[in-house]
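Students often ask why inverse folding is considered easier than folding. One informal answer: many sequences map to the same fold, so there is more than one right answer. In these notes we will look at a single instance of the problem. The structure comes first.
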């Protein structure tokens, strides 16, 4: 009897844990494709994306002619593009890397 209760408890715990985890029908490829289609960034600038349960990361290079205000506007547009793909995405982090120093970047967040 104890083994059955323990098994039932474990099964219930696993089921409730799987329901609590956030899942998106969104892939990194879809995020990149949507950003490319939205034409927020210059076509020559590469974009990378990573989808995690709590955050979607978008990484790109900073346009050398862009100032911080320009990057903030681009970050908002990129975040909107991602959140339009899946309304369950709670947060998007956009990182603009410097072309000459990949260890340097600025980041902005967009919250849903």
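Output (designed amino acids):
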């Amino acid at each position: 009897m104890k083994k059955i209760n323990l098994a039932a408890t474990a099964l219930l715990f696993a089921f409730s844990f799987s329901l609590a985890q956030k899942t998106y029908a969104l892939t990194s490829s879809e995020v990149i494709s949507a950003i490319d289609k939205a034409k927020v960034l210059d076509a020559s600038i590469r974009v990378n994306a990573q989808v995690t349960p709590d955050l979607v990361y978008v990484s790109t290079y900073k346009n050398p002619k862009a100032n911080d205000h320009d990057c903030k506007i681009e970050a908002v547009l990129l975040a909107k593009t991602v959140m339009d793909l899946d309304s369950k995405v709670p947060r998007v982090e956009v990182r603009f890397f410097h072309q000459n120093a990949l260890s340097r970047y600025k980041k902005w967040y967009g919250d849903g």
